[in-house]
Amino acid sequence: MLLYYILYYHTKTQTEIGLGNIMKSTIHILFFFSFTFLITCTALDTITTNHPLGDGETIVSEHGEFEMGFFNTSRLPQNRYFGIWYKKISEGTVVWVANRDHPVTNTSGVVTVTSKGILVLVNGTVIWSSNSSRSVNNPIAQLLDSGNLVFGDKNDDGTLNITWQSFDHPVDNSLPGMKLGIDFVTGMQRNLFSWKSDDDPSSGNFVYRINPKGYPQFELWNGPTLTYRSGPWVGDRFSGIPRIGSNELFKVQYVMSEKEVYYTFEVTNTSESAIVRSILLPDGGLQRQTWNKETQKWGNYLSLKVNDCDIYKSCGGNSVCNIDSSPKCECMQWFHPNLQEAWSAADWSGGCVRNIQLDCENGDGFKKVSGLKLPDTSLSWYSMTLNLQECERQCLEDCSCMAYSNADHRGSGSGCLLWFGNLTDMRGYTEDGQDLYIRLAASELEKEKKSSSTNRVVVIIIPVLAATAVIGVLFLLYAFRKRKLKRKGIERLKFDGEANNRIGKDELDLPLFTLMQIAKATNDFSFNNKLGEGGFGPVYKGMLDKGQEIAVKRLSRTSRQGIDEFMNEVSIIAKLQHRNLVKLLGCCVEEGERMLIYEYMPNRGLDSIIFDKVLCKSLDWLKRYNIINGIARGLLYLHEDSRLRIIHRDLKVSNILLDHEINPKISDFGMARIFGGSETEASTTRVVGTYGYMPPEYAIEGLFSTKSDVYSFGVLVLEIVSGKKNRGFKHPDHNHNLLGHAWRRYNEGRHLEVVDPVIMESNNHYELFRVIQIALLCVQQYQEERPSMSSVVLMLSSKIELPIPKEPGFYSERNPEENHSSSSKGESETINQVSITHVAPR
């Protein structure tokens, strides 16, 4: 209490003496100032009845991880708050506040222990207390290295019987080891409460808490409004949160029992030095953050709210939200909009209703819907002992049960979840979603069964009729063209014998242009119409009679690409339709010519802009980021979403064309390969592609797969971000190519040195760092460690955890002399007929 008196008297002296009494009080002020300075510089270890904590004093945890005391904010400097903050980081981030809504407005506050064994904050009156109901004989408060302020009874052996702890009363931060949830025995609820603003710790509008009704789930409330829910726990994560793969940084735990339900996380043993926290931001954002020692800033490791589909009930009942669809809200297959007019006007709040009402007595059934964030579970029932078959019977026996699913989706699944009433707040995922079994009327199932049978018949008949029609049309065309050629007395097709056979055998649903049409469109292949030239041959701009602009790719007679590449491109790209793939309009095969006619891309190839010192300034970071996303989605379509699985094998910056809106389109499928349904990898002795973009397993062993394109995509992304070419890249500090340079700077925490100075003004350095990390994951040496394109698209469109990239393939040049030699050759060269024993790409 002597400390309290000194602090009080010192404050009173400073505030109450007048100018006329300054000299009289000088000795008192100097004495008290000196004493206070000594106390301020000496951190206390504990708070007891005899050792209170005053303003200017702090308590530091045993190993100096956290510090506790009074603080203020820049916005409200007159208000003093008692709290806990990180000790070792520069920002001094506050993680807990005792008196957030009752600040001390002077420097006379003190934290002490009362004679009744209660921890209190006093400023004349009690402002805050621990409200511990248990009696304490030898009370003591300590700050642990976990950031937990514990208070209790000290035993003779020095241990502490905890009667109160700050971890049971979170504010806006969840630290490792802290529980979020409900203790059903004591009734204690551990929720997160947002600050009012970044520099005002008073209570904000948002609360993140668990809802124990039905199957427990976490919910985010903005005052009285529910704005977001996590989805139920499905065994290894919450439904609606993408699987983030192996995690070496932290591990999570979810406990659900009769006594309590809670969620917590711990930093793993391999990353004990990492600083990780979860935070509820003042604007309602939910993030898991890590401290970046290089930038001395908090980085967003994972965001739980990413886009509009995360808004609670954004699409009403019995509908699914798909962020990549337009419109984003879609009724499930067996439902239709409840209010069609409002639905058409983008008001989806009315949700969807059944096409055919349930008829429980006549026997309902179920249909599986995959890839979902499971519906709101506040009106659900669960059992962890039932299997999926028992779960179906349980739901079928209750006429009010609308759907069922496994409670635990790991492996083959276990447990049972039943839903009653409308199915709300569902979201679609291309991967990492869960299966939901929807209840349908027997008549609906019978209708679908008949439709399925009809479809099977149609699937058989239509191809037969189509094939017959195509053969007939081709025969007529062949007969007509042969008679026409004979009449004119010239051989219009001078393909070699193989070409004639290939054209005759392929059933191509593709328009054939005459040589006269193309010559007229290109002004007889005028030099002024020439757009450029590649390994295939020259490309010309043209305009058809109807005003449509086209690009004509004309196979050069000296080109090393021949009938194989030509037919390959025609047969593959004619069957593909995607906004990020260039559209093939037709071909011309008259008089020995082999020409492909494409839609015209006014902004030409990406390489003509990205590597040009002047034109590159027109591509800011937002445009480059959109180009990267577009290329990724085009590749995802080729690998997984088209009816054919296609490996491009020559993905490079010059094969990315830009339309008038700078949307990217992948082109040049002359070297692509089609994979069968179960085929994932193939080999060849004829390596095709471009040096600098080929992965090691392909260039050296001739093995190629979808991961080959992933590697090329990673190289391409680094070139887009840096504005530099991978092959021929030179740096005074080392002999690495662009991949090695980027990997080296990433490991040194100097990733911004990789970025093109033109886009450094974007200020979105976190996004730049993330894209570089994704690119390095794509170019890892071993193909099994590279992500799939579906994972890449997910990484680009969300803020999920990213693994640490390993050493890239072909990242080091041989020696400085070879660097100079190779760079002097200019552009990378496309190869298509090189024995793998001679290939040594760098």
Q: In short, what is this structure?
A:
The protein has 842 residues and is α+β, with helices and mostly antiparallel strands. The chain contains 16 helices and 47 strands.
What is the arithmetic mean of pLDDT? 81
At the first level of CATH, the class of the largest domain is Mainly Alpha
Number of domains: 6
Residues in β-strands, percent: 25-35%
| Structure summary, number of beta strands | 47
CATH topology of the largest domain: Transferase(Phosphotransferase), domain 1
Task: Give an overview in words.
By secondary structure, the chain is α+β, with helices and mostly antiparallel strands. It has six domains: 43-163, Bulb-type lectin domain (Agglutinin, subunit A), CATH 2.90.10; 170-306, Agglutinin, subunit A (Orthogonal Prism), CATH 2.90.10; 313-440, no CATH class; 443-490; 491-599, Phosphorylase Kinase, domain 1 (2-Layer Sandwich); 607-834, Transferase(Phosphotransferase), domain 1, CATH 1.10.510.10. It contains 16 helices and 47 strands. The strands form 13 sheets. The protein has an eight-stranded mixed sheet. Strands 35-36-37-39-38 form a five-stranded antiparallel sheet, with helices on both faces. The longest helix is centred in the middle third of the chain and has 47 residues, at 442-488. Residues 1-43, 487-507 and 814-842 have low confidence and may be disordered.
